[in-house]
Design a protein that fits this description.
Radius of gyration: 14 Å
Number of domains: 1
Number of helices: 4
Number of strands: 5
Strand order of the largest sheet: 1-3-2-4-5
């Protein structure tokens, strides 16, 4: 029998400035800005790259293409994790809860992912 701990059921902590329950921050807070990204450099979830720059004591690094199977995206609506591949291919809709993501985030992909 597999045991599931409470920690497995809780979403990971998300860092950022003026965070909402849906992972929106002071930098990006539209109704569609509801993802958090685990940063490659520190393996911590941040609401956005600006939140990382404000809080982390190191520069951000991008996820290499060969690590696209990493569950590094957190939906701020359902708190399910998505692999980088799934996120990049989901057409701005969470595959778990169908919440819409901001299509403008595609402009920032090179800040997070090797393209």
């Amino acid at each position: 029998m597999t045991r599931i701990s409470t920690a497995d059921l809780l979403p990971p902590p998300v860092h950022g400035t003026a965070l909402t329950a849906r992972t929106q921050c002071r930098h990006y807070h539209s109704a569609l800005d509801i993802i958090a990204i685990q940063h490659h450099c520190c393996r911590q979830f941040y609401a956005c790259i600006e939140c990382h720059r404000e809080a982390a004591a190191h520069p951000p690094t991008v996820w290499p293409k060969m690590e696209r199977d990493t569950e590094a995206i957190l939906c701020g609506n359902c708190y399910k994790r998505l692999t980088i591949s799934v996120y990049l291919e989901c057409e701005n809709v969470c595959p778990h809860c169908q919440a819409a993501f901001n299509p403008g985030c595609a402009n920032h992909y090179p800040l997070y992912f090797e393209m």
